Amino acid sequence: MPLSKQKKSEYFIKLNRMLSTYTKVFVVTVDNVGSQQMNMTRKSMRGTAEILMGKNTLIRKVLKDFLESNPGHFFEKLQPLIAGNVGFVFTNADLPKVRDLILANRVPAPARVGAVSPVDVAVPAGPTGCDPGQTSFFQVLQ
Question: How do 49-53 and 86-91 pair as beta strands?
Answer without folding.
Answer: antiparallel
